[in-house]
């Protein structure tokens, strides 16, 4: 379960990084300010992804510890 969460997080972060790179390139080439805003939104999504991943990781650890204690009794 933990490996699945980390894999999904890595894929999402790589996709967001690619989108941010494309957005910065379009901002520089077109000079349109909307691409700068889109870049900041994508960076915000990256931060949100890392935060949600840490919450999911903590929840998974809690479940694993609970199941481990339950199986020992």
Question: Which structural traits does this protein have?
Answer:
single chain; 73 residues; mainly alpha
Helix-strand blueprint:
Blueprint: H1 2-30, H2 33-72
Helix pairs in contact: 1-2
What does this protein look like?
The chain crosses the membrane at residues 37-60. Keywords: Membrane, Transmembrane, Transmembrane helix. This protein has one domain. The two termini are 23 Å apart. The longest helix is centred in the last third of the chain and has 40 residues, at 33-72. Helices cover 95% and strands 0% of the residues. It is built from 2 helices and no strands. It has helices at 2-30, 33-72. It has 73 residues and is mainly α.
Q: What number of domains?
A: 1
Total helices: the number is: 2
Question: What is the H/E order?
Answer: HH
The number of E-state strands comes to 0
Residue fraction in strands: under 5%
Poorly predicted regions are: none
The rounded Rg comes to 18 Å
Summarize model confidence as the mean pLDDT: 85
The computed structural class is mainly alpha
Helix fraction bin = over 70%
Biggest beta sheet summary: none
* Dominant shape: rod-shaped
Cα distance spanning the termini: 23 Å
């Amino acid at each position: 379960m933990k490996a699945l969460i980390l894999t999904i997080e890595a894929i999402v972060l790589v996709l967001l990084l690619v989108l941010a790179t494309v957005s910065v390139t379009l901002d520089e080439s077109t000079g349109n300010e909307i691409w700068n805003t889109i870049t900041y939104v994508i960076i915000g999504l990256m931060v949100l992804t890392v935060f949600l991943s840490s919450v999911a990781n903590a929840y998974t650890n809690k479940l694993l510890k609970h199941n481990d204690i339950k199986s020992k009794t």
